[in-house]
Specification:
four-stranded antiparallel β-sheet; 0% helix; seven-stranded mixed β-sheet; single chain; mainly beta; globular
């Protein structure tokens, strides 16, 4: 059974930092890229960042580029999202997702529907 469990969310003041973690289990037989998405109240789920299986490739939404950093530790089956210079517009529930690598397919996608597994989400609230 595949499980993705996020942690590290919370309340932070504008300008502050948070580090989210996502621990994956049940995916040991597959290679998978990982993504972070977020969803604010009344808005659609949006892409934040992604990282390839090896960690050598990353992708970011323009809104977080230069402030957020995605990384992974495959020995621990964990992916991280370091978030710096947070602002109130970053307030949302943050979700991690896994995309099983299939030969010939792009390693990441900005569309939630292209990811195979999801965590339950962790709330990030940035106060002004």
């Amino acid at each position: 059974q595949v499980q993705l469990v996020e942690s590290g969310g919370g309340l932070v003041q504008a300008g502050g930092s948070l580090r989210l973690s996502c621990a994956a289990s049940g995916l040991t037989a597959s290679r998978y890229s990982m993504g972070w998405f977020r969803q604010a109240p009344g808005k659609e789920r949006e892409f934040v960042a992604a990282i390839s299986w090896s960690g050598s490739s990353t992708a970011y939404a323009d809104s977080v580029k230069g402030r957020f950093t995605i990384s992974r530790d495959n020995a621990k089956n964990t992916v991280y999202l370091q978030m710096n210079s947070l602002n109130p517009e970053d307030t949302a529930v943050y979700y991690c997702a896994a995309k099983i690598q299939v030969y010939g397919s792009r390693w990441y996608s900005v569309r939630p529907v292209d990811y195979d597994y999801w965590g339950q989400g962790t709330q990030v609230t940035v106060s002004s």
